[in-house]
TrEMBL record:
SUPFAM superfamilies: HydB/Nqo4-like, Nqo5-like. It is a peripheral membrane protein. Fe cation binds at C208, C500. Ni(2+) binds at C205, C208, C497. InterPro entries: ComplexI_49kDa-like (IPR052197), NADH_Q_OxRdtase_suD (IPR001135), NADH_quin_OxRdtase_su_C/D-like (IPR037232), NADH_UbQ_OxRdtase_30kDa_su (IPR001268), NADH_UbQ_OxRdtase_CS (IPR020396), Ni-dep_hyd_lsu (IPR001501), NiFe-Hase_large (IPR029014). It comes from Lucifera butyrica. Residues 267-424, 438-503 form the NADH-quinone oxidoreductase subunit D domain. Transmembrane segments: none annotated. It holds the Pfam family NiFeSe_Hases. GO terms for molecular function: NAD binding; NADH dehydrogenase (ubiquinone) activity; nickel cation binding; oxidoreductase activity, acting on NAD(P)H; quinone binding. Residues 7-124 form the NADH:ubiquinone oxidoreductase 30kDa subunit domain. This is Respiratory chain nadh dehydrogenase 30 kd subunit signature. Keywords: Iron, Magnesium, Metal-binding, NAD, Nickel, Oxidoreductase, Transport.
């Protein structure tokens, strides 16, 4: 069960400082909830992660009346900066003392005073275009010039605007403007039955389908007090590791594109395609959708399919080792990635960075091990950690994780034939206005889903914190000191997702 501590909003800063304890616990998420229909006020929630105890706890700051204000945490918890800006955008709550309250999620076209996640906002009401301006801080001085990139890019990717300030070739500052295609999923699922909301949640991101489905499902099951069968748990882990595998293999290949190494790109694309076809055999689609569902798993895996997976893993292992040999022998490629885009360990801690990006900067963290779920605590695997914090560290760490994922999948393949049991349990009537947290480790890092139920098995509030949301701010730390041609390499090494933050 989650531990909640409720304090008046004016005491939130003091209480959060005690929880944070100079970084001993991590601020894993921060969000608001309009609880006026329930208790007559607003609430700000801080989720703290204690990796030593393997537990999450929540601090709830209560705002009873206007003005809707609470003390900012950003001055001593830098990771709070984005969360507080988002709370200000979507709820109109003011984090007093925040150093930069420019819009984050809402841009210059959104009118002031309209807060889409308040309960009295009617999502069917047309919102007029404000046609305002979006301020981007400028770096001034002799010889300084700016290079704008995006939001529309030459590659077929989602939109993001990057403004580089340079003095000669080295970048001295990077400003990123994101959230161009925010879909309002958290608003769209308000009042929607849990089983129907699941299909929107599962589609937050194609590459993190299983991770989002698993986090949401585990949050629902926690409210329901539901235990999922062991066979379903094994299928869930299999799906999650297959998702991690095709992402990591693809990421290693895609990173080669940033250095113009076409052979590496082709090898990675070929192996990814092989794994995507395997996904379709396992789940009926290439993104493993519909396999993990609240209550368990929606589809079984036959002995013949398990044998097929083993065969493909054996072939993939050899092919991937060949790609890594090509990379290690290419001194031009190595020169491009070594000491490029360094994210210092302290910066990673301060910003609450997760996943590969954190582990490549010396932070030993992994939700599968530290906050065990499904059957991961029963499996034998290691969590690779590197300390250089550069592009190379993030690349080789993914390579190490591919080996661990294959090792996990082989354990799943060996254990699954021995298991029987019902794949999916029905979701019972859920108690209204109860909350829970679900989590999972995606290929990019931890995904968290917090939900509060409404009446008749509906959602009152859903909050999603993706791994990319935690990691995007780190890009602005890793890029300065490098040159613009290195930006594609640095960006790809973090493997950041636009869709995961535009939820």
């Amino acid at each position: 069960m989650l531990k909640y501590e409720r304090v008046p909003a004016r005491q939130l800063r003091e209480a959060a400082a005690g929880r944070y304890d100079n970084g001993r616990q991590q601020l894993a998420a921060m969000f608001a909830n309009d609880e006026r229909p329930l208790r007559g006020g607003m609430a700000v929630y801080c989720v703290f992660a204690d990796p030593v105890a393997g537990q999450y706890s929540l601090l709830q700051g209560i705002l009873e009346q206007e003005p809707w204000e609470f003390p900012s945490l950003t001055s001593f918890i830098p990771a709070a900066a984005w969360y507080e800006r988002e709370i200000h955008d979507l709820f109109g709550l003011v984090p007093v003392g925040h150093p930069d309250l420019r819009p984050l999620v809402l841009h210059e076209n959104w009118p002031a005073g309209v807060y889409p996640l308040r309960k009295d906002f009617d999502r069917s009401t047309p919102v007029p275009d404000a046609a305002g301006e979006f301020p981007l801080p400028a770096v001034e001085g002799e010889g300084i010039f700016e290079v704008p990139v995006g939001p529309i890019h030459a590659g077929i990717i989602e939109p993001g605007h990057f403004r580089f300030s340079q003095a000669g070739e080295p970048v001295i500052n990077l400003e990123a403007k994101l959230f161009f295609t925010h879909r309002g999923i958290e608003k769209a699922v308000e009042g929607v039955p849990v089983d129907r909301a699941f299909y929107q949640v599962e589609r937050i991101c194609g590459a993190c389908t299983v991770s989002h489905a698993l986090s949401f499902s585990q949050a629902v099951e926690a409210v329901a007090g539901l235990t999922v069968s062991r066979r379903a748990q094994y299928i869930r882990v299999m799906a999650a590791e297959l998702e991690r595998l095709y992402n990591h293999v693809s990421d290693v290949g895609n990173l080669c594109a940033g250095a113009g190494f076409a052979v590496g790109v082709s090898h990675g694309s070929r192996m990814k395609e092989q794994l995507m076809r395997l996904n379709e055999q396992v789940a009926g689609n290439r993104f493993l959708r519909g396999l993990v569902v609240p209550g368990g798993a929606a589809r079984d895996v036959s002995r013949e399919m398990l044998h097929e997976i083993k065969q493909i893993l054996r072939s993939l292992e050899e092919d991937f080792a060949e790609l890594l040999d090509l990379l290690r022998e290419n001194h031009t490629f190595l020169d491009r990635i070594n000491t490029t885009g360094i994210l210092p360990q302290q910066a990673a801690r301060d910003l609450g960075v997760v996943g590969v990006a954190a582990r490549a900067s010396g932070i030993d963290c992994d939700l599968r091990r530290d906050f065990g779920y499904a059957v991961y605590s029963e499996l034998d695997f290691k969590v690779p950690v590197r300390f250089e914090g550069d592009v190379a560290a993030r690349l080789w760490l993914r390579a190490d994780e591919v080996a661990q994922t294959i090792h996990i999948l082989r354990q799943i393949m060996d254990g699954m034939p021995l298991l029987t049991g019902k794949l999916k349990a029905a979701i019972p009537a859920l108690p209204a206005y109860q909350s829970s947290l679900g989590w999972s480790e995606s290929a990019r890092g931890g995904n968290l889903h917090w939900l509060m139920t409404g009446e008749n098995n509906t959602l009152y509030r859903l909050f999603v914190r993706s791994a990319s949301y935690s990691n995007w701010p780190a890009l602005a730390v890793a890029v300065p000191g490098n040159i613009i041609p290195d930006f594609p390499l640095i960006n790809k090494s973090f493997e950041l997702c636009y869709a995961c933050i535009d939820r």
